[in-house]
Amino acid sequence: MPPTLRRSAWTTSQSSSRHFTPLVFFAFLIPLLTLLSPYTSLLSRKHHLGIFDSLQTPILGDGASRALLVTAHPDDEVMFFSPTILSLIQEGWEVSGLCLSSGNDTGLGTIRKQELYGSYETLGVSRDRVKVIDHPDLQDSMSVHWDPALILNIVENHLNDHSAELIITFDEKGITNHPNHMAISKALSQTFHNKSIRLLHLKSPALLFKFTGPLYPIYLNILSILSRITGRENFAEKHMKFVVLSTSSQWYQSIQAMLSHKTQLVWFRWLYLTFSQLMWVNELKII
Ligand SMILES: [Zn+2]
């Protein structure tokens, strides 16, 4: 959960804005998506930017087909990782989710747990492949330190029962600089680096590009074209190889998944869904 805006601070303005914002949202977004749809469809073609088809054989081994997404809070999976989840499933991977807290910072943990299952189901991950941890030392909080050893212990125990060849999680900046996100990244980087189970980090977007929404894929495409024109193929590969893009229909699927997180749908979250780059693009790197 992005840490910057806490629900309590916005309570008075929420009720009047809640009815208004979705209308504004769709009024702007539907024409925009119509305009951009051909570009995003073109970009998402496997031979351009697909990652998992090319990664599978040379890097992960022939039998690689199971991926585990490790997140900190319900809604991380859809707000940050949905292009990756949808791309993996499209490529035939079996995706499972491990969420290390129930997101109980405002006492809504039980509800948010159910919301998480609903979100994953909409993205194509069945309930029996999603696990939520509710450990007293791993509570959703900006001020609680999550012990790396405990995180590691939980992930390794999970892998004993549900094996995977690929783990996907946050990078060192944790997308939003949330300490819970960063703690997971740190704990897993130290252990899974150069092991048979490969670790992928989701790159935190640069501030300049964070809220460029569907314009960011166009920027990436221009970058790719320029690289080809100038003959700098390696440059293009370096920047584009680990990029996963959603089509407009996959983006819509992500929005549907986010609707499961009813407790989180305050007005500013609609802005996030409209403008966040991560609803469209995931840039990943192998650790
Ligand atoms: Zn989070």
From TrEMBL:
Task: Extract the Pfam families matched here.
Answer: PIG-L
Transmembrane parts of this sequence: 20-39
Provide the GO biological process annotations: GPI anchor biosynthetic process
Keyword terms, alphabetized: Membrane, Transmembrane, Transmembrane helix
Give the record's GO CC terms: endoplasmic reticulum; membrane
Any single GO molecular-function term of the entry would be:
N-acetylglucosaminylphosphatidylinositol deacetylase activity
Q: Which domain of life is it from?
A: Eukaryota
Task: Quote the EC number.
Answer: 3.5.1.89
Q: Which family does it belong to?
A: Belongs to the PIGL family.
What protein name applies here?
N-acetylglucosaminylphosphatidylinositol deacetylase
